[in-house]
Amino acid sequence: MFSITTRFRQSFRALLSSGAVLLLSSAMMTSAGAADIATTYDNSCAACHDSGALNAIKKGDSAKWQQLIKQKRMPTLINSVKNGMPQMPAGGLCNTCSDDDYRKLIEYMSK
Known about the structure:
- By secondary structure, the protein is mainly alpha-helical.
- It is built from four helices and no strands.
- Helix 3 crosses helix 4 (99-109).
């Protein structure tokens, strides 16, 4: 009986330690992801969205971004970025972005 109790305690401690490591790594990945989106923005979107070139909505113009998101909805905006528009090349200068990356970039610009 003693060995079963001891084994249970060891397993429980290992499980708790794993959970703590998982929580910590998840938090680190979230902040790393935010840094990656900022870098991706700087390397692709900023060319037009910092200055408003070609009538691009400027980063940080929350009112205009929220109006656009409400009007067109996020899936439509993501497809517009992927397929391009007359004033924006397909992919918005990001050749490696996923749909989730585009969503995060739109959210990043809208704040």
